[in-house]
Amino acid sequence: MEKISLKNELSNNAYPGRGIVVGKTPNGRKAVIAYFIMGRSENSRNRVFVADGDEVIRTKAFDESKLEDPSLIIYAPMRVLGNKTIVTNGDQTDTIYELMDKQMTFEQALRTREFEPDAPNYTPRISSVLHVENGTFNYAMSILKSNNGNPKACNRYTFAYTNPIPGEGHFIHTYKCDGNPLPSFEGEPKLIEMIDDMDEFAKLVWESLNEDNKVSLFVRYIDIETGKAETKIVNKNN
Question: Percent of the chain at pLDDT above 90?
Answer without folding.
Answer: 97
